[in-house]
Each structure stands twice: as structure tokens, then as C-alpha cells.
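Crash report, auto-generated. Payload:
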Amino acid sequence: MPIKLFFYFFAGLALLSGIGVIVSKHLVKTMLWLLLLFISTAILWLLIHAEFLALLLGLIYIGAVLVLFLFVIMIFDLTIERIKLTWFLLLPITCTVTLVAILSHTFATAIYHKHIFTFLKHSKHNLAVTMGNLLFTDYLIEFEIIGILLLVAIVSVIGLSDKA
Amino acid sequence: MNILTLADYLVFSAILFALGLIGIFVNRTNFILVLICLELILLAVSTNFIAFAEFAHDTTGQIVVFFILAIAAIKTAVGLAILILLYKRKHPLSLEKLNFLKG
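Recovered output after restart:
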């Protein structure tokens, strides 16, 4: 099966899920559309040889962020009103998205001449090894800063939700 | 016609970004939906980075996506903590009514 068909199928699925996130009327249905979006984007990342990041997307985005959203929706009965989607709203949305698609395609083909991905066959290491090597040598400072940022986030969340 | 090009990924990322932005414009009073559409935007930007990282055979883009994922998780956690605090103190949860700094 040609790879482009695979790409079109999952890209279409991801874009339909994006529309479903915006349009759906119930908050839990929004979460389910978001789940489908993350899964199809992870598969698109797999096509581009970023398998470590695709799995990390499933682990962090789906496994932590989405579950956190669902917990908050479930425990705190949040029913917030949404704007009713009418044709008056749908027409400028469709026009904007079509314009963005045409403009970005023109930009991409004009500057990059629709360059083909040249997949290096038989690369020596997979992405996890390469990223691990880079994270601890060239990008060590950023890695440590992310660690400190995570600590700050944990302390702030606990401080916010403590009985004040 | 069977060959995957960079333009495919860039167009996909641009459309996803536009959808997230439109989601923020449409659902501008709903706190959780704004957070979700920000996740959509960050996902589009991450796809863009990964496409360029593969195109240029440079792992820098993938490292940036690693950090973007971490920061998105942090932002979600802190945003939801603020939302829970607002809910507990019985403030109105609609974003257009949240225009005070004290509380």
C-alpha cells in the first residue's frame, strides 16, 4: 500500500477529529475526539521516523494530560455553556481554514520545491538513542531547566489546591 | 505520487493550527475548551518541528518537541489547578466574567 494513502487517511482522520473537538456539544465527547486526534497524530509521527516521540505522545499527552482533563471533568461537575454553531459561524471558519491550507501549500511548494523526504536507510541508532545522547551532552541545560520547571509546577499545583 | 513530501506535513500542521485558533475564537467563554485548543495548537507546532527535523536530518527539532510536550503537560496541570480553585470558591466559570484579579 503506498505510503501517501496511509498519510492521507490519518491526516484526514486527525483533521476531522480537530473539527469534532471544536464542534461537539458535550465535554466528554470533546475529550474522545481529542483522543482520536492524538492517536492519529502519533501515527503520522511514526511515518516520519519519530517513533520515540510518537510513543511519548501516547504516554504523556494521552496518558497524563487527557486523563487529567477527564478527572477534572468527572469530579467537578462542570457544565459550561458553549456557543451554538450556526451557519453564520461555520462559513467564515471554513473559508479561513481553506485559505490557510492554500497559502501554506503555496508557501511550502514555492520555498521548498515540494522536497521529498529522503529517508536514510539503515540508520545506526533509533531515535531514543540519538535523543538520549543529545539530551545529556548538547542540551543538558535545557533538560535541567525542564526538570526545575516540573518541580515548580508540582509545588505550585499542590500549593494552589491545598486547603487555603 | 507515492512519495511523501514535506509540503504534506506543513499543510496538515497549518490546518490543525488554524482549527485550534478558530476553536479559541469560537469557544472563548469556556475555560476548558480554551486549554484544549491550546493543546491542539501545540500539537500542530510539534508536527511542524518533527517534519523539518526529518527533512533536514537534524535531531534538534525532535529535542524541541520533547520539551514542548513537557511544557504542555505543565501548562495543563497548572491551568486545571486554577480551574478547580475557581470552582471551589464559587466564582463564575465563564471566561468573560472572570475579569478580576483578586480572589
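Post-recovery validation: Chain B has a mean pLDDT of 88.
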